Automatic annotation (TrEMBL):
<feature type="binding site">
    <location>
        <position position="90"/>
    </location>
    <ligand>
        <name>Zn(2+)</name>
    </ligand>
</feature>
<feature type="binding site">
    <location>
        <position position="108"/>
    </location>
    <ligand>
        <name>Zn(2+)</name>
    </ligand>
</feature>
<keyword id="KW-0479">Metal-binding</keyword>
<dbReference type="InterPro" id="IPR036972">
    <property type="entry name" value="Cyt_c_oxidase_su5b_sf"/>
</dbReference>
<dbReference type="GO" id="GO:0046872">
    <property type="term" value="F:metal ion binding"/>
</dbReference>
<dbReference type="InterPro" id="IPR002124">
    <property type="entry name" value="Cyt_c_oxidase_su5b"/>
</dbReference>
<feature type="binding site">
    <location>
        <position position="81"/>
    </location>
    <ligand>
        <name>Zn(2+)</name>
    </ligand>
</feature>
<keyword id="KW-0862">Zinc</keyword>
<protein>
    <recommendedName>
        <fullName>Cytochrome c oxidase subunit Vb</fullName>
    </recommendedName>
</protein>
<feature type="binding site">
    <location>
        <position position="105"/>
    </location>
    <ligand>
        <name>Zn(2+)</name>
    </ligand>
</feature>
<comment type="similarity">
    <text>Belongs to the cytochrome c oxidase subunit 5B (TC 3.D.4.11) family.</text>
</comment>
<dbReference type="Pfam" id="PF01215">
    <property type="entry name" value="COX5B"/>
</dbReference>
Amino acid sequence: MCKSVVNDGNYRFVLFLAVETVGKKKVEDVMPIATGHEKEELEAELEGRRLLDIDFPEGPFGTKEAPAIVKSYYDKRIVGCPGGEGEDEHDVVWFWLEKGKSFECPVCTQYFELEVVGPGGPPDGHGDEDDEHHHH
């Protein structure tokens, strides 16, 4: 799975990019099967623009008082923290960042919070409450 390391000179963390998760395939290869928001994102990518500018966060190192804000179209997303700059770097710590919950990296103590900039909901389109109805 491909990933993007974000580095703006202040802090870095890694975000999965929806378009890159198609692996070796080109965007054009997935267009026939893409639907909904994924199709909108892919069409925008083909035009050289991002539908939502949520993959390149900027700002200072996240603290408890002022956490690093990660934008998401959904109520949660996968984020990776490789620490700070230079000697403050560490192996990437992957985690689910969820709406309404802050996350503290156990290695470098950077804090993160999610800002939902879309309609929200789970990334897979199925909420936990839906699962309960299928196990009778």
